[in-house]
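hey so i finally got around to running the thing on that chain from the lab meeting. sorry it took forever, my laptop kept dying and i had to restart like 3 times. anyway pasting the input first so we r on the same page abt which one it is
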Amino acid sequence: MAQPAKAPDRVNDFVIKLANVNGTGSASANTLLMKAIFRMGIPVMGKNYFPSNIQGLPTWYEIRVTRDGYVARSGRVDLMVAMNAETYHKDVREVSPGGYLIYDSTWPRATVLTRDDITILGVPLARICNENFVGVRNRILMKNIMYAGVLAALLEIDVEVIRGLLTESYAKKPALVDANMKAVQLGYDYAKANLPCPLPLRVERMDKTRGNIMIDGNTAAALGCVYAGATVAPWYPITPSTSLMDAFKSFCQKLRVDPETGKNNFAVIQAEDELSAIGMVLGANWNGARAFTATSGPGISLMNEFIGLAYYAEVPAVIFDIQRVGPSTGMPTRTQQCDLMLCAYASHGDTKHVLLFPSNPEECFYMAVQAFDLAERLQTPVFVMSDLDIGMNDWMCKDLTWDDAYRPDRGKVLTKEEIEALPKFHRYLDKDDDGIPYRTLPGVSAKGAYFTRGSGHNQYGGYTEDSTEYQVVLDRLLRKFKRARTLVPPPVIEATGTSNIGLVAIGSSRGAVNEARDILAKRGIAIDYMRIKAFPFTKEVEAFMAEHEKIFVVEQNRDAQLKALLTLETDVPKSKLHSILHYSGLPMTSKEIVEAVLAEIGDARRAAMASGH
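ok and heres what got predicted. didnt touch it at all, straight out
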């Protein structure tokens, strides 16, 4: 029996990483483990690092057990389950000193699986599977489920919770429940008989997940679109946005079918490309439906021509950008925040677009609704800037709630009676001095008909090449964008009341920032925090910038795109802003933020001392 290295007990505070081969069914086992820990009332985080091919390349899944509820990567690995011999050399290096590595000991241990400062535990998974299951594919699948049983014994995960999850998953296929539980029990029993159970790393029941769910951002966003009243969803498949459209279709098949006729009250259309998809979105919205599409950076690049049309012709549209690593094809299954500039100024000419920045799946749900209301109220494209980390990973979020009294904000849409009462309808006339004209829907009244133009037009809707008439419309569009500052969600600000140092971030960086602030606070460094939720930037963003002498801008791209937007669109002096950049494609950790802040503050203090201040 292997003897564990001496290590202090770490209850409900450690990281498991599972190394496997894509296409072997490991995702089911990994999700089963994470959800079992969640069902035990313990906050947990799961992140999937997978290749962009269909099958055969290495894949990793990271589970952070975190009693304090942190949702960012920790940057350490306490227990590695190494199921892929091709990545042994990488996996063994990743284990933190004092940690553990589990491998399939059916075959002799590779020489690379050797380190004096960690404990290596062998389990003959393949041999046990071959003795108990038939069929090559079945044995591969059950081997992964078996390591869930091994970990249940080592970490004291409740096996009955696992049984309950399997029963829920395979309610209509009891034979699968039995087969999976057999594999779990085989792994559990072997570990109990041959390994040091429990390890110093282990779980204990808590009550910190009540009122929470596990959900990914794409599923939450799709549900938000349903609740917002969306009925038309043209799209073209692209990682990592495809699952959003799959989820929307699934929800609509349950909630958007006429109970009397059995006919669908929705349309999900796979277009021939992204340009066609956004064109269909514009056509549906112009016709009065609520329509949207989901894509990623390469898709936005292709959509630019029609995005410009929507901006200039003032047609509502909602676009979900599930950001991934670029440029070009980049790394399709890795995460970044690299489309900020692309979306803020999408298309040629002078354009500015509304962006929303959800920080987790919960906000994807609520911001989906906000996006549709803003798009119709402002008669313009609105981008929801999610990313792969939010979109495709399971997050612990508060229960999603809904107000049945909600009614969509359609904005300035004239009724037939209102149209008929007008002397004449002028599509682009700013009657209320807020930059937003009135619009009509096709078929309501012939008097409200107009020509939707992407070419030069005047405020009355007529074609023009007159410079003055053109500028009147373009200046009004800018006033409308400034009006949007009062309509988009304000930032979340957490201020100490004593710090002159600020930290600014968007989206999925939130988890790393929150943890970093806690670490810095324990070292006596108080930092105010502003999480921007939308572009254009509101007055609260301007005020926060003005109130702080040094501002760290945290973002997940190489070129400091958020910092560039702040410099372009606010009055903040560029000298105040200090970038903390992360663009490896993996989600950010708190360590990077802490180290950058400490280095900058240390340099400033040394400079002050040298100058005699």
